[in-house]
Amino acid sequence: MTGRILTPITSTMAKDKAIRKLLGAPVRRGHWGARAGDTLAGWGVKLNGQHIRAKAARTGLPYITLEDGFIGYLTHPSRDPRRLSLIVDRQGIYYDASRPSELEAILNAGDAFPASLLGRAEAAMALIRRWRLSKYNQGRFEVSPETQALIESHKGPMVLVVDQTAGDLSIGLGGASAETFTAMLEAAKAENPDALILVKVHPDVLAGQKKGHFGPESNVANVRLIADDCAPLALIERAAKVYVATSQMGFEALIAEKPVVCFGQPFYAGWGLTDDRQPIARRTAKRNRAELFAAACIGYCRYIDPYTRTPVELEHVLDLLVAERQVPRITAKTTYAVDFSLWKRGFIGNFLEPGAGRVRFVSEVALASMTFAPDDAIAVWGRKLDKLVETLPGHVPVWRIEDGFLRSVGLGSDLRRPSSLVVDGEGIYYDGGRVSLLETFLSTHEFSDRDLARGRALTDKILSLRLSKYNVGSRGSLDFKAKAAGRKVILVPGQVEGDASLRFGSPEVSANGALLQAVRAAEPEAYIVYKPHPDVVSGNREGAVAPEILASCADEIVDAADIIDCLEASAEVHTMTSQTGFEAILRGMPVVTYGMPFYAGWGLTTDRMAASLVRRGRGLPLEALVYAALVAYPRYVEWPSGRSTSPEALTEAMAKAAKKGKRVAARGPVDKLLGKGRKLRYLLSALLK
């Protein structure tokens, strides 16, 4: 486009650089002062859009209609308004069957679609089916136990009838009315006499907050109304046939290869794929599912990375949604978070959403006397409350929370809010004695080419931006090799003694001094560089090594140096369970483990406790380990917004923060004062929640 785009969209959208890039022109809010070369735009077919369309007709300026795409949001827009897609239509809009749209023109043209485009469509549909992706993605992956029991109790097939909210513009513009829904249900009953008829209504309808077209009076004979907030495809997969007026669920049913009966005139009707009770004479071409999908979701929609706000392709957005599905999440009506400090309460809720329901912070003492409902869950920090967990009823799921692997700029003990946490309902990644969700994923997941490509790209980004877990220390050039005079340089990272990762992940060597002695015994000729843990150096945690051990086992001690500089100046890393071992693997360095860290046992390290890791069972490429550990396992949050983010966006933000001088070299008086200020701010935040 040339000139400007004038539109009444919100000021936030008008200022969004991604929207401007997608539209290919500067965006100005409002439509006054239009001049030659400008384009007027309206959102959907709302009244203001109709006024602007009329103005465009009067002035001879081009007009475009904007609308959300078919893969629309990470969750529900009421929870997170960042959109994933945008439609720009110069003729009409897809849900207005009274006039042609660009989508209809693409499908009606009769042109053959390139094989490469159809291949993309088939792959995308397979991904959507596997992960049950939709326009809104807040719903549970599975149907509720009540819905499943209802379906299983019926001996015949299940037929799905999809209700819509009264007043939905797509109903009237799609050739339907309130009477259409009555006729649709009657037809479904008559045409499927032996079937269980499930009427999918909006949850707000049964709650009385919104009006639909069916009410409790429809629950007669073999008809049941359900308001299950699950992924639409979870219901569609169980259906023998799907009846719709104009709902997008009909399109998703086609993706799922289900028979679809249309009582309205939605965009996917009229192409030979649906049973159309209102034929559309204007639509003359015959299309298959791949062609329909390619036209609608690849040719017609434009996509945005919600985290980086950059234009992307459909596949990129699907990758983000798949990762969201893979990230472990609590599903409960009430989640009891036990013994969390007040400052942690200010951010824990951001990581538990969506799915955790109401989060209640309780003490260990209070929890011991509580009675739990079937849909309650417990959240605890790491392995701190093991004795309490052992006393809980077996039906109550327990989720353990810990820092992720890309945490923040600065130390957690300095009260820096984490940008990444893991929530694990099976174990926890640093406990090598039991299986965690991360280990299960690494052991069983079939990594796709796109998974591996994302893992590879994320590795390259982390290396190019020189990031680590905490991003602390002073950067500078180190030259261990010159001092080593030909001896192999081994970096030994210290850890916080008594830390859970040592107690549960390194039963044989669990102290920094013992590790140094073991490394010296294994490598008597090596030049050993010991780097104490930043929390030990800052005085926040224990882990100092006796001077006599340092003197006999370490050739050099580096306190304030940046860990990445240390890695780049070394040839090998020996560690108990430190994440420095993982960061060394990213750089292709040999790593020897003396414990059972999450990255050991996959063929990427030399493991002194290999016999204890045989259950991990298979070798993996580095890209798979990175994808699992940094994409599929943790949940990321950007601050101060508190919204979800991606590891790619977080790495960019961490690099920018580090460049602004926010790295932590040492803990002096100013650092302590700033820490107290942060603590006060977070305490206030927690109290206000």
From TrEMBL:
Protein name per Swiss-Prot or TrEMBL: Capsular polysaccharide biosynthesis protein
UniProt-listed GO biological process terms: polysaccharide biosynthetic process; polysaccharide transport
Coiled coil start-end: none
Taxonomic superkingdom: Bacteria
